[in-house]
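Design request, tokens follow.
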């Protein structure tokens, strides 16, 4: 072998070694990034769980709290209401602050507030202090929930990967529904009502500690600023809507006033935001995006029926003597379990069957579930009810993740915090309107079975209508794509 050949072999060997080392380095970096993103998802899921578990167990503790503090019915109602109102009022603020100040920062602030509020509730010396603590927790949830969804949009820019992640994120909601009542009942029975607030504290602390090294900071101020008129009008509109729904069953005149104020504030909000253009709290041009409008419609329809079921079906079971509270909690489990099991696969289903098909068909399945519940009302057996609940859980599992992905994925990353907040606004609005409207129909029935029959019939028809509207809105773009 000549000297030239020897030199060429050395050069090629070094180049091959360099390429091999570079490939190894790139592979290692890819593994590190994948592992880090999994830790990000775990952290975000813990944040979602602390908010949802706390919400699902508080209703179980209302009676022991009332006995302990000798509280009135109105005071006990505000233990639940204060959280919902604060959550509604500050949702838009949470989404905007995530975009302006940093999504990681606002997520961590939200988790810290929620965890601190849980401690305050656990050691509340009076019912008034407990109500204030619950409102403080609502503020924390309004910050962490939109921020968590916005972080997913940033960390997983590829919509295929994001579909699976959002399925897992959505499954945490179902997991909270599944374990919340059971866990809450056990804790209250063994350790008293204060324990339900303490149980989320370790999860909150772990989420905070995990967020520091795993989540990268991101923000997109993009010339935007804190929109005070928009914040005030938006808060009044959302708070008024929630308050009207809460008061509808007990004080109809007060509810009408609150609803009127909410509608006036909404009109003022739209006018003010239209003048600000791209600098608005909620840029109205987001609603020109067909996919975004479809996601908002389907999301509101989904929670309209879902929360109506969660409110009215256990009430009917207990009113007719079919089940006691513990039995009602167990009977709701199939819906939650199907939700948890199906959600992680919703991303893969969306790739195979198109997102617009998954979201619309998921909401339609919930509608069919409600129609089954309507037909089964008064039969004296819960077997048909379980079929309706399984259909409802299946629809929720198929639709929730893809709807979240459609909402935040149809806008730019710059607006991801706002889109995430609006997704949660649609969920909240659908829920409070659904409980109010279907509850009113239920109350108008001569007996619980009749009330359930007509309320579930109306709920199912609304679900199917929203599914059809979402299909029409999103199908054109999906076909074009």
């Amino acid at each position: 072998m000549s000297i030239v050949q020897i030199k060429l072999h050395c050069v090629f060997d070094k180049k091959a070694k360099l390429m091999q080392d570079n490939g190894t380095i790139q592979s290692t970096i890819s593994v590190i990034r994948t592992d880090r993103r999994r830790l990000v998802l775990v952290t975000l899921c813990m944040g979602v769980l602390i908010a949802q578990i706390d919400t699902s167990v508080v209703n179980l503790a209302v009676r022991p709290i009332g006995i302990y503090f000798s509280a009135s019915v109105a005071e006990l109602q505000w233990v639940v209401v204060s959280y919902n109102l604060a959550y509604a009022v500050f949702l838009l603020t949470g989404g905007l602050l995530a975009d302006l100040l940093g999504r990681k920062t606002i997520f961590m602030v939200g988790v810290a507030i929620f965890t601190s509020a849980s401690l305050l509730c656990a050691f509340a010396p009076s019912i008034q202090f407990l109500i204030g603590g619950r409102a403080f927790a609502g503020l924390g949830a309004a910050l962490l929930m939109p921020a968590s969804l916005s972080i997913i949009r940033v960390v997983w820019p590829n919509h295929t990967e994001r579909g699976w992640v959002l399925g897992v994120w959505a499954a945490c909601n179902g997991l909270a529904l599944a374990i919340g009542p059971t866990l809450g009942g056990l804790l209250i029975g063994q350790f008293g009502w204060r324990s339900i607030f303490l149980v989320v504290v370790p999860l909150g602390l772990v989420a905070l500690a995990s967020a520091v090294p795993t989540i990268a900071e991101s923000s997109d101020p993009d010339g935007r600023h804190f929109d005070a008129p928009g914040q005030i009008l938006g808060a009044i509109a959302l708070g008024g809507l929630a308050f009207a729904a809460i008061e509808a069953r007990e004080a109809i005149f007060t509810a009408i006033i609150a609803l009127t104020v909410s509608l006036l504030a909404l009109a003022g909000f739209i006018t003010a935001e239209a003048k600000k253009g791209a600098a608005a709290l909620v840029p109205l041009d987001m609603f020109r995006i067909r996919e975004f409008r479809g996601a908002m419609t389907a999301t509101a329809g989904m929670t309209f029926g879902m929360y109506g079921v969660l409110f009215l079906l256990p009430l009917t079971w207990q009113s007719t003597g079919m089940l006691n509270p513990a039995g009602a909690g167990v009977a709701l489990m199939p819906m939650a379990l199907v939700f948890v099991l199906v959600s992680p696969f919703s991303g893969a289903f969306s790739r195979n069957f198109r997102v617009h098909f998954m979201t619309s068909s998921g909401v339609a399945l919930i509608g069919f579930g409600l129609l089954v519940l309507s037909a089964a009302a008064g039969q004296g057996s819960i077997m048909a009810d379980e079929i309706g609940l399984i259909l409802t859980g299946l629809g929720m599992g198929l639709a929730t993740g893809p709807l979240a992905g459609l909402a935040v994925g149809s806008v730019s990353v710059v607006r991801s915090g706002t889109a995430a907040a609006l997704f949660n606004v649609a969920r909240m609005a659908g829920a409070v309107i659904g409980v109010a409207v279907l509850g009113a129909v239920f109350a108008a029935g001569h007996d619980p079975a009749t009330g359930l029959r007509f309320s579930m019939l109306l709920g199912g028809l609304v679900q199917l209508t929203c599914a059809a509207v979402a299909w029409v809105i999103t199908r054109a773009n999906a076909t074009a794509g």
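Comment from the thread starter after seeing the answer: thanks! The chain has a mean pLDDT of 80.
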